[in-house]
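Supplementary notes for students who missed Thursday's class. We covered one full example, reproduced here. Read the sequence, then the structure, then the short commentary at the end.
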Amino acid sequence: MLEESEEIHSDLEAMTDRLQHLTSVYRTEKMSQQVAELGRETEELRQLIKIRLQNLQDAAKVRKKC
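Structure (token representation):
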């Protein structure tokens, strides 16, 4: 009985370790997805800023002509 109890305890420890590892992997994957999304949003903002800057430069050129 004592031997079975030790085996169960050992199995539970191994399962706990595996669960912690899987949790870490899950968190890493989720963070990776968030980083990818932030990268896409950053690129969209960069393009928007580029367009707005060009519009401002164009407006400044028009204003100088008047």
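Commentary. Residues 2-65 form the longest helix (64 residues). Helices lie at 2-65. If anything here is unclear, bring it to office hours.
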